[in-house]
Amino acid sequence: MSGLPDARTCPGLGEASDLKFPLGAKFREPLTEARFQQLFGDAEQESDLLSEPRWSRLCRQWRRLPGACSGPGAWRLLLARLPPLRWLPHYRWRAWLLGDAVAGVTVGIVHVPQGMAFALLTSVPPVFGLYTSFFPVLIYTLLGTGRHLSTGTFAVLSLMTGSAVERLVPEPLGGNLSEIEREQLDVQRVGAAAALAFGSGALMLGMFALQLGVLSTFLSEPVVKALTSGAALHVLVSQLPSLLGLPLPRQIGCFALFKTLAAVLTALPRSSPAELTISALSLALLVPVKELNVRFRDKLPTPIPGEIVMVLLASVLCFTSSLDTRYNVQIVGLLPGGFPQPRLPNLAELPRILVDSLPIALVAFAVSASLASIYADKYSYTIDSNQELLAHGVSNLISSLFSCFPNSATLATTSLLVDAGGNTQLAGLFSCIVVLSVLLWLGPFFYYLPKAVLACINISSMRQMFFQMQELPQLWRISRMDFAVWMVTWVAVVILSVDLGLAIGVVFSMMTVICRTQRVQCLALGLAEGTELYRPLRESHKLRKVPGLCILSYPAPLYFGTRGQFRRTLEQHLGLGEGGKEAPKTDGPPDAVAEPVRVVVLDCSGLTFADVAGAREVVQLASRCRDAGIHLLLAQCNGESLSTGDTDPGRTPEQSDPRTAVRQCPGCSCSCPGETGEGAGATGGKPRRCWAI
After folding, report:
1. If you count DSSP H runs as helices and E runs as strands, how many of each does the chain have, helices first?
2. Alpha-carbon distance 195 to 348, whole Å?
3. Does residue 580 register a pLDDT over 70?
4. CA distance to 69, 117, 445, per residue, from 335 (Å)
5. Close Cβ partners of 468 (under 8 Å, ≥ 6 residues apart)
6. For the chain: N or C, fewer Cβ within 10 A?
7. Beta partners for 577?
8. Contact 671, 693 (CB under 8 A)
9. How many whole angstroms separate alpha carbon 537 and alpha carbon 535?
């Protein structure tokens, strides 16, 4: 910028007032907006738009709304809400169709046993897990923006839903129910699970209407990973009674994990040797197969479907050996063919289930959005978080009409879909075809499937969640604060419950953000030799501090929580104490002699916002600087950040708004970066970003 035409050196101390050039520094004249337009082009049209009143801009936008209801506007809305209309015309049929077909069939094969297993985790009959593996997948294929996302049953949501269902529809204390009573209990629990899906879907649609997709950012990565890892431990412990063949009631509420462990240890002598053997053999097959799929994912054309192989082997073994009648092994039983009649969940239960629906909706959206973002970044495409809210909200809402429980994207099947070569949402259609064939024709083949095998599938599917703890050493090295968030969330989830652990994790994560704003340091800037750049003095001893001038940068918001830290920091730098003016703090060499400060420039470029308390703090600082004979200059101010909007009748406008003092100033021209001007008319009467107080 020093080579600009007609650039001149600022006048010395004898050529200008102390206010404009207090130190007589020989720097170039500040580049004003008017001077910039004169040198580099005419921006009158843009300036007029910027200076246009806000109400006028709103009126102009309101007049444009009828045009959005035209044919082209409706087509744009349809393209935004139905993503297949955008990607299907560009689909590479020869290159992608085979990969989507193989990946979809592979994921569908896994959905069948996993859906039935997670249904037991939700405390509903296994067939409803198949419904939840069909309807949500089909709906997300039409509305979702994640090309590599696989939706359906998810262990964490099934655990949260199962705990809510057990509390809403508890099992009678006796436990010895007849077949008719057991069917009535299952019907009530299915209705409660469907109502939870309806409530969570309605909440997500409400968030979509308010465009609250940004809420997913409040569930940070440490919170989500700690939540899923802690929930995986809950899943493991909750499946122990099924592994051992113990008919124990499900524990809910706080300390449920420890209550379940105590009940299992107490009833361990009554465990079933047959179901214990089936569980051991199932885990001995499932765990090595999953390890092989991970280690040889690049060499295998498609992952080995260990779950479906185990389901077929166990069903054949139980049928040929009559394990259900000879050793009282619990089996799945008859899977009804076809689909259930659509019906609206009991709306009278909605007020009771809203407390449980909110955390379910937040976890479903957070996990789905984070998974979609990971694969979108990996394969270089974008997702729309608000469209994801719509997709998952409609998916849960409509599927609840067919007795489905809450659903979301799943970690295991998403990774499986990518490893199998999936490219687009079209893989979901092939997955639905597999599940549909089971619902219509292949259901009777799973009649003799032992429930202990489904419990083993639940446990083996938690592998990825357990291995998330391997990231803790790296997290400790990168950020101790994120490590603390991870540990606090995990401990809260394990000891208390998934719902309370999620709330504690989010609150603790927000508290760490607030604490970080309290630890921000105000940096004193110095001039780098031979340049016009100002850098923090503590970075190098080669930086020169202009005598009598103190340039401070405050890179944090100024609000009621940081005003005290802001006041103390500036008192140290400027030497403003309780008893009067003191020696200012120096960030330079230890032997540097602190000179009295005559001018202070406060760089507000890092000050993102200021509330009423923060703006009043600046007013008080200006008053103290004036009493001490110090000129205070604000640089790079946001036009709205330092306006208090104070309506106190005891205050004058000058006391309420630190910017109003510029009206009493004959002009402002300082050597700090920012849009400055020679007097009030330099920028055409528009607000400037550098004010003198």
Report:
1. 28, 10
2. 10
3. no
4. 48, 14, 9
5. 225, 228, 229
6. N
7. 580
8. no
9. 6
